[in-house]
Write a structure and sequence with these properties.
323 residues, alpha/beta, Metallo-beta-lactamase, Chain A, Rossmann fold, six-stranded mixed β-sheet, six-stranded parallel β-sheet, 27% helix, binds zinc ion
Amino acid sequence: MVSISQGDGVRIDVPGAPTVVVDAADPADGLPVYTHAHGDHLYDHAPEAAICSDLTRDLAGVRRDGVPDPLDHPAVSLHPSGHVPGSRAVLVAGEERVLHTGDCALRDRLFLEGFEPPPADVLVIESTYGTPEYSFPEPRETVREMLAWLSETRDRPVILFGYALGRAQQLQAIVERSDRDRLFVSDAIRELNAPIERALDRSFGARSIDDLDRIGPGDALVLPSQVRTLPFVDDLIDETDALTAGVSGWAHDSSFRFATGDDATFVLSDHCDFEDLLGVVEQVDPEDVYTIHGSTEALATELTARGYRAQALKANQHTLGEY
Ligand SMILES: [Zn+2]
């Protein structure tokens, strides 16, 4: 019988396949698999070997000491999940098939293609935006809005904030398309750019913030959202009269703008919205669904109301046998 449990990572046991442990900080046994290189999905100490995409391995090498050796197994396959560069969903196929989405996004965005989920008997699905109020605009609409804003505000410098891995590269691609003159990024973003640019065979054309004497009209600076509240950012805004923009799926909430204090906010997500999550479940067409991350209970309840056998995956609990 298939068994799914959450402790350090998600442990997947399928008869006829080896035990797989997905996104564990310190995997003890089983085949370690990493879906992508966001910090909350990566190892703390590198396991000897792990299954992940080549790009995730390269990005992990930027973010962590040590890189696991490549590993594969015929029962485990990786499927591009459309979340960030290098991200993969994991399919474990033995007597039954279990699909773990990792973080995923269905819609094409800039240089990223959306997730095309394969069919499976059991689905483990992320539920970051797992409640019906999350309905995101088409990414190309947001990109159009952002290009218009970058053009209208061209007499001022702008600072764009987003996650260093994934969002920051999208922001650079948008600035590249705009009529802004110069693009600068922090070193943390530049280090992550390098393997992504190699994998995509393109350059974002960004310069280091260290080469920056002073940003002025026509310039754009992309910074990690984590530095938004640091004093140097406030000083930079005061000194240069820069406008700021926060770009996130959470910008869907009106509280986001008040919380960040940004001049503009744009809704652009690297996750599925609620309808897209339902779309993934429909395409996978599973017997059983487990929800992880974010609105786990809410999504499980919604799926149950739609006739699926669904439950939230809780830490240190559970197998199918408990039904
Ligand atoms: Zn992620």
